[in-house]
Specification:
Elements: E1 3-4, H1 5-12, H2 16-24, E2 32-33, E3 39-41, H3 43-57, H4 62-71, H5 75-109, H6 115-118, H7 128-135, H8 137-149, H9 152-174, H10 182-196, H11 210-222, H12 224-227, H13 233-250
Antiparallel strand pairs: 1-3, 2-3
Helix pairs in contact: 3-4, 5-9, 7-8, 9-10, 9-13, 10-13, 11-13
Length: 251
């Protein structure tokens, strides 16, 4: 199957000029160019374009998108990661929609508004109380100040990296990976490194302490809000077991 540049622009909501720009910078080449100069895109090119658009929605710039595509050559694995992220985002949007619906219903009926239910899925501070209870107010204040001090680009890059890690976990769980395997333990190593990069967390700037890692791992399973980020309860159990195994070996 091939689609013309005009068809691709119409289907994706982009422009022919944008697609030509993608070609000029080496991001997306057409599968062929006709004698009349028309550009055509085959299945492989369309799948690459789908990945480009998904990464763009994560907030990545074109240079970073190209690096990601050049690095992640396993198309099926990459698409599984995208799918896991989309499902997590779908869950977040569903929570937002439910919150707005509850607000609208309460307003129409004259019922009391419940602030705790109005903003589910909206703000990164939704776990403030839990963080303070587990690791102290200073831990939350430090990490919150770090987050608010990031630029929009830095936030988008951090979110994208976090979502890639979550998607990699979900894909490994879906593939039936053994939590004790080398592949799962490499994911656990990345996860621990990611945790250690967040100011205010136990072990920031060094290897996080074992109790912190295993406590979070247990919370991923116990709290469905966290489990959703790993493809559901089954995926969260896989993450938990892999992190427990990693902590026992290395922390």
């Amino acid at each position: 199957m091939e689609a013309s540049i005009q068809e691709v622009a119409r289907l994706t909501g982009t422009t022919s000029r944008t697609l030509r720009h993608y070609d000029a910078i080496g991001l997306l080449e057409p599968s062929r160019v006709g004698d009349n100069g028309y550009r055509w895109y085959d299945d492989d090119a369309l799948v690459r374009l789908q990945r480009i658009l998904l990464l763009r929605d994560l907030g990545l710039g074109l240079t970073e998108i190209r690096r990601v595509l050049d690095r992640e050559t396993d198309e099926a694995t990459a698409l599984r990661r995208h799918l896991a992220w989309l499902r997590a985002e779908q869950d977040r949007l569903a929570r937002q929609a439910a919150s707005v619906h509850r607000t609208l219903t309460a307003r129409e009926k004259g019922d009391r508004l419940m602030a705790g239910e109005m903003f589910d899925g909206f703000d990164h501070t939704q776990y403030k109380e839990e963080v303070e209870q587990r690791w102290g107010a200073d831990a939350y204040a430090t990490s919150d100040a770090w987050w608010r001090g990031l630029s929009d680009d830095d936030r988008a890059s951090w979110k994208a990296a976090s979502e890639r890690l979550g998607a990699d976990w979900a894909a490994a769980a879906e593939a039936g990976t053994d939590p004790a395997s080398d592949a799962a333990q490499e994911l656990a190593r990345r996860h621990v490194e990611w945790l250690g990069g967040i100011p205010g967390t136990p072990g920031h700037g060094m290897a996080p302490v074992a109790a912190y890692v295993t406590g979070l791992a247990d919370m991923y399973v116990a709290d469905p809000r966290f489990a959703a980020g790993y493809g559901g309860e089954q995926g969260a159990r896989f993450v938990r077991d892999a992190l427990h195994a990693y902590a026992a070996r290395h922390l």
